């Protein structure tokens, strides 16, 4: 099986070209039986997997070496260094073996190297930003690709008719149109490799990268249609063939998207039932996404579009269903596979350029192609942007247009497509291969090297790597609802109206179908934020008391898992209004930054404005046969009781000092303790003092426990649900109380 896969992986067959000598059966007459061999070299049995592992190891070591010098990687993109490394390795192999080996085969690229990169891009793509700019992305991907393909092909044919291309380049109009269709598409691998290092703003990046993903359908259709026309001959092409070509554009694009959405639905539905087999969750994500890619490829549909829509459509539901460890495994495995595939692609591109037997040079064709792809790309971007700006609320300025024009990079997709051409049908294939290699190297190396200085010189807005604050999220949702309401009032069903309708449909049907019950039973998002702020404050308190407690230790399994607990706490300072006063973590007096101040204000608002249930309900062991309202109240009660159990583990925490657990604690009602603390402060007559962050006085944390709550059920039923209250008292007071009780 491995030997059959060697040609697909671009590796030579063991003993290829050598004549097989007749082997003599052991034990034949006249031959003594072979003795026991102490050592046997069996290279041919492990050649294929060994070479694959060796190339991955070389690629990984190359990335390590490149990033040892920060100056080199800050000036030269990693893709350029990998191509140069591939040229060096290809020259070494050619000098040693006297022939070029280990080429980038189209089967290897399309079936094994491209899917991880596209899946990583689609799965982690910001869906809100993508759909907000979907109109511009589709315009550049469809209209722009058609414009670039036909104008480049026609211009090259005109260049040949003018005598600027050598007569040995035997190609007609259909041949040049076929070449224009494969050389005009923006490559997603090259765009990712270069634009992720430039760090342009999110809108500019999503437009260029979205175009590179969605133009695959147009590229596939144009390539297959033009290739079929060349094989048929221009004289045999009928009018119905042109109509079939136009119809195939919709079939390939919509069919690929439909395949991706079907597999996204299956993936989300499957992960709903993996609660007891968490170990296979990452496997299901990769397996079904790859199945979507292969199914679309098998049906001659857009495989890139299929896996993109699969990752984009399933992420919300899959992230809600799978566990935190599975999400981490999916994230890092996907990033690792994509990085390895990208590294191998650029290395093999450099190695493939060394094989001069596959290409022929013509200066007129090469220079003309370079000029036309740059000129028509810039002209198309300007014309399309002018039309789009008539409808966009935030228009694309001239600087954005310059970066979009200059960022139309070509890569391994064009090289793999030109290698697939049939030399018997297209005599100019070798010239097209040479021109494609030059175009790929020019766009990746020259444009990749100069795009970062260009962005700095033009002062293009850069991306801001920070999560939106709570205030920004609330205002964003508020404006979305207001705009949807305005469109509904005026009777105009625009973008905000349909997005609001989709969110209602998703919440009412899809989320309940594709998410497990503990995930889709969502409380108000304001409640969710309130819970998380309390958890972060508790973590901050424990950290400053001398203990490090991770956020995963305080995660409630029944909480929605779509939004993870933030790593940084809301506030990093302890507040106390006296030696025996109540320390309420919901009160924030001092903050360190503007973002903390904004979260603090929102925390006050949530604490004072949220609805508080009047009665407490016991958590039932059964999760069935409960009304919806009772279930919601039960979840809130379970959350608070779980928090109290966890906080009991550090109830006697001090700064860097902990009391032993063997010391008995008097069982008193927590309400009496709080009243006693207030009376003690009034008796002493001491004004409340502030406990600063640098104060080293020992503090003991007292938390209401579930046992104390059960001891006085009648009193509990009358109390309002006031959340979790932390009580801090000075150590001397607690010790004095212990002595009195001991006497």
Automatic annotation (TrEMBL):
Keywords: Antiport, Cell membrane, Endosome, Ion transport, Membrane, Signal, Sodium, Sodium transport, Transmembrane, Transmembrane helix, Transport
Residue numbers spanned by region Disordered: 660-725
Keyword Signal: yes
Compositionally skewed regions (Basic residues) per UniProt: 662-674
Domain of life: Eukaryota
Family recorded in the similarity comment: Belongs to the monovalent cation:proton antiporter 1 (CPA1) transporter (TC 2.A.36) family.
Official protein name in the record: Sodium/hydrogen exchanger
Organism, scientific name: Physeter macrocephalus (Sperm whale)
């Amino acid at each position: 099986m491995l030997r059959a896969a060697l040609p697909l992986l671009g590796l030579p067959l063991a003993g290829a070209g050598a004549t097989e000598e007749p082997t003599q059966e052991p034990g034949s007459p006249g031959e003594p039986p072979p003795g026991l061999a102490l050592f046997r070299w069996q290279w041919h049995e492990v050649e294929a997997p060994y070479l694959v592992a060796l190339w991955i190891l070389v690629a990984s070591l190359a990335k390590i070496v490149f990033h040892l010098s920060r100056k080199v990687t800050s000036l030269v993109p990693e893709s350029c260094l990998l191509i140069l490394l591939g040229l060096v390795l290809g020259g070494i192999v050619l000098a040693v073996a006297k022939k070029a080996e280990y080429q980038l085969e189209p089967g290897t690229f399309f079936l094994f190297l491209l899917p991880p990169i596209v899946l990583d891009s689609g799965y982690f793509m910001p869906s809100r930003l993508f759909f907000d700019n979907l109109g511009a992305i589709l315009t550049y991907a469809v209209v722009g690709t058609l414009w670039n393909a036909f104008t480049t092909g026609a211009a090259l044919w005109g260049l040949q008719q003018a005598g600027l291309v050598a007569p040995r380049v035997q190609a007609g109009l259909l041949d040049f149109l076929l070449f224009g269709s494969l050389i005009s598409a923006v490559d997603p691998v090259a765009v990712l490799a270069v634009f992720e290092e430039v760090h342009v703003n999110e809108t500019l990046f999503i437009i260029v990268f979205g175009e590179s993903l969605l133009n695959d359908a147009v590229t596939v259709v144009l390539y297959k249609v033009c290739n079929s026309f060349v094989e048929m001959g221009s004289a045999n092409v009928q009018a119905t063939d042109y109509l079939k070509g136009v119809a195939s554009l919709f079939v390939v694009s919509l069919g690929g998207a439909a395949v991706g959405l079907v597999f996204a639905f299956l993936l989300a539905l499957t992960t709903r039932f993996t609660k007891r087999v968490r170990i296979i969750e990452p496997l299901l994500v990769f397996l079904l996404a790859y199945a979507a890619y292969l199914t679309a490829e098998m049906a001659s549909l857009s495989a890139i579009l299929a896996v993109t829509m699969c990752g984009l459509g399933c992420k919300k539901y899959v992230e809600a269903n799978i566990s935190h460890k599975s999400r981490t495994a999916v994230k890092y495995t996907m990033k690792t596979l994509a990085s390895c595939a990208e590294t191998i692609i650029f290395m093999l591109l450099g190695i493939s350029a060394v094989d001069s037997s596959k290409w022929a040079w013509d200066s007129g064709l090469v220079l003309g192609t370079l000029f036309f792809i740059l000129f028509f790309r810039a002209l198309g971007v300007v014309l399309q942007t002018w039309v789009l700006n008539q409808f966009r609320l935030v228009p694309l300025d001239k600087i954005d247009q310059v970066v979009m024009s200059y960022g139309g990079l070509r890569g391994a997709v064009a090289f793999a497509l030109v290698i697939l051409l049939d030399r018997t049908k297209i005599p100019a294939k070798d010239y097209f291969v040479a021109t494609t290699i030059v175009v790929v190297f020019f766009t990746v190396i020259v444009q990749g090297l100069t795009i970062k200085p260009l962005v700095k010189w033009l002062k293009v807005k850069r991306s801001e790597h920070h999560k939106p604050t709570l205030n920004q999220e609330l205002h964003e949702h508020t404006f979305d609802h207001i705009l949807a309401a305005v469109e509904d009032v005026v009777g105009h069903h625009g973008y905000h109206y349909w997005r609001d309708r989709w969110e209602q449909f998703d919440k009412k049907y899809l989320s309940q179908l594709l998410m497990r019950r503990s995930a889709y039973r969502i409380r108000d998002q304001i409640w969710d934020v309130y819970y998380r702020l309390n958890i972060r404050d508790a973590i901050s308190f424990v950290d400053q008391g001398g203990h490090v407690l991770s956020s995963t230790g305080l995660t409630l399994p029944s909480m929605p898992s779509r939004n993870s607990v933030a790593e940084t706490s809301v506030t990093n300072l302890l507040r106390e209004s006296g030696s025996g006063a109540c320390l309420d973590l919901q009160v924030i007096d001092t903050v360190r930054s503007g973002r903390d101040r904004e979260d603090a204000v929102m925390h006050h608002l949530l604490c004072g404005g949220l609805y508080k249930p009047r009665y407490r309900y016991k958590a039932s062991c059964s999760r069935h046969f409960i009304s919806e309202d009772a279930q919601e109240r039960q979840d809130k009660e379970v959350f608070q009781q779980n928090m109290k159990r966890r906080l009991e583990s550090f109830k006697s925490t001090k700064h860097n000092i902990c009391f032993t657990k063997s010391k008995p604690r008097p069982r008193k009602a927590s309400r009496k303790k709080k009243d006693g603390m207030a009376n003690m402060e009034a008796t002493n007559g001491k004004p409340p003092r502030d406990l600063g962050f640098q104060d080293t006085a020992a503090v003991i944390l007292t938390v209401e426990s579930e046992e104390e709550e059960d001891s006085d059920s009648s009193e509990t039923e009358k109390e309002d649900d006031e959340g979790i209250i932390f009580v801090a008292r000075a150590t001397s007071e607690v010790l004095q109380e212990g002595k009195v009780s001991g006497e």
